[in-house]
Amino acid sequence: MSKPDSTKRQPVTGTGRFISGVVEGFYGRPWTMEQRTELFKRYVKWGLNTYLYAPKDDYKHRMYWRDLYAAEEAEQLTSLISAAKQHDVEFVYAISPGLDITFSNPKEVAALKRKLDQVKEFGCRSFSLLFDDIETEMCPADKQAFSSFAHAQVAITNEVYMHLGEPEVFLFCPTDYCAVFCTPSVTQSSYLNTVGEKLLPGIDVLWTGPKVVSHKISVESIEEVSSVLKRAPVIWDNIHANDYDPQRLFLGPYKDRPTDLIPKLKGVLTNPNCEFYPNFVAVHTLATWCKAPAEGTPRDVEMGDEEQDPCYSPQKALNLALTDWLEEHEWVVVTLIHGMSVLPGPCHPRLKKESSEEEPMQTDMGESPYIPGPGENPLYTAEPLTLDDLKLLSDLFYLPYEHGTTARTMLQELDWLKNQSQAAAAETDKVVFIFICKRRSFFYMLSSYSCFLFFQTAEWCSRAQQFDNMCEAVVQMFNRLSNAPNRSILYDLYNYICDIKSGVGLARAYVKTLGGHSQPSAQLLNDDPEPWGFRGGLSGEFQRMLPGHGNRDLFRHPPMTAVYCIRPYCPEDKVKMLIISGLVFSRLKFRSDVMDLSAGEISPSPLCGLILEDDLGLCGYALALTDAKPAAAKIQVIQSKMAVSGSVFEEFPSVIALEMLPRVTDPSPAKRMIGQLLSSIRSSGSRGAFCELRQSNRRMLDFYSKLGSFKLVQMDGLPQDILVMATSL
């Protein structure tokens, strides 16, 4: 743990100390009193000084701002304010009356004063009035009393400020609290100019930067707004806020704010993640940023460092925060030895009594510990969480406008693997010779592109393995984090890490399918997948229906809708069908269907051959014989074996062969082709149709099962790996 020099704790700008710390200003469940007290203890270590109490969903802070605190609530706030003082933290109580206050009504102003007077009695000496996220239209009574919305807000703010005795710290949050809200611009905003001219000079103004969640905040932008406000603003920074998206968490460093800003500001307060414990990184790196100019030693600018800040390195600040996070909390697994907790790993080479509230629930040590006997399963031993795990966690959940290095690499690699696999599939037109060895029933491909293994290059296979290794690291991080004894941190993180583990798992399986190392997943040709196989929720469905969905992804790869063409089969399709069969069946380690429709030895019946094409070419087929028995007899003579017995042809005279390349992930084209084939077969007078499938072809088994009309047919004498599914017409 780095110990801040108390003589360098607070940069000074103008009069008073530089305001630095946290604003609890998010929407959602407020933090507990215990968590806030823990935050104050961190302040002492990190050199921060201010806490702004403004939880949007504390109903007496915002919705029922007029109501006084009850005795129990008053006791809790009094204790919290006292705890802040004990740790030299300035506790700023904020109230947000803007939802329904009538500015021109003296009773409303009196109610506001009465509420703040009560909080003052609790020991609070610093206050804030917030008018953010409210409607800008004044009621008729206020329109008669004030010339503008800004005049109304400034008048009541000045009056309350004077009533409270002009506190040293008094913050005002305007309705136009960022540049994008200012009409027509910051310098020409009548609202902001009124605030700057009329607000008493002892009142500081909160500002979020160019946007609500600002990617970057420049010195020039702060100088511009300062000239309008006639004072240096206090930044309310939403860079780590996540209350607007329940799927996002931000564990990256405080960045894209040059330390040259510090002399231009009155302070910086970060409004971080709703979850308390993951904010260790956000608050720690802010503290490092605030101290950077006072440390006195410029750093060497690193290659690729976008900020070019001589005093502050976001990456070094992040590494320091993650190291301290690992050391200060019980991340590592506890092993019980005779009533003592042994914390393994270089960070915790010590024994300690089982007294910490953050340790896991202990077992009853009255009995001897269980020791597995010979041949029994060994006890499960979880590995301790490592610093690399926390770095990976931060990379996966970095910042609103930027993924971490590992996350970017994984997205780039997946994109490359997918595109190169599709490009390789297009090379099938360049195959110059295909020889079919019927005796072994394998496909031998002699190509001018002999470096391809199933049309995947050695580079593709190497990068696929690297991608798989990165996916495995995510899984192992999840496992170690899930077994960490500090359950409070885990519970804050669990939904996020479970979600990313699921997404990475699907991507991993898809790449293995492309590389021929596993069978195509049933999830890829299924309109009824397991819930964990897709991202659900009504909000997500609304977004996917809107134009431009995905065009703001941090990895710019706009979603594409595949367009398929279904056309009749022609004899020229035989070669390409053989290639599809070879690619698919070689992956599954078995030959084509016994009827050899896909091998081209027997042509499909009239109107019973369909070909599926996409932008890359032929990608699937559906073929049928309306009378399969004569063809079966012919093939039996050629190959001296067959799976289906003659009795099947009485009830199901027709046979179907269907196959899709793995890149066809939409089941709709396959369902349409099957529907057309069955219609043609029915028109021929056939009573039913069957198909032969190998048990390892889980994709097609799942597809036929989900159709509902195909059922398994029990037959004697079938090879062990062959299944027959059939449907009556």
UniProtKB/TrEMBL annotation:
GO MF annotation, one: [protein]-3-O-(N-acetyl-D-glucosaminyl)-L-serine/L-threonine O-N-acetyl-alpha-D-glucosaminase activity
EC primary class: hydrolase
InterPro entries for this protein: GH, Glycosyl_Hydrolase_84, O-GlcNAcase_cat
Pfam families, sorted: NAGidase (PF07555)
EC number(s) per entry: 3.2.1.169
Superkingdom of this protein's organism: Eukaryota
GO biological process, one term: glycoprotein metabolic process
Recorded catalytic activity of this chain's protein: 3-O-(N-acetyl-beta-D-glucosaminyl)-L-seryl-[protein] + H2O = N-acetyl-D-glucosamine + L-seryl-[protein]; 3-O-(N-acetyl-beta-D-glucosaminyl)-L-threonyl-[protein] + H2O = L-threonyl-[protein] + N-acetyl-D-glucosamine
GH84 domain span: 18-294
The entry's keywords: Glycosidase, Hydrolase
Signal peptide, first to last residue: none
Region described as Disordered: spans on this chain: 351-374
PANTHER family: O-GLCNACASE, O-GLCNACASE-LIKE
Name listed for the protein in its UniProt record: protein O-GlcNAcase
Origin species: Astatotilapia calliptera
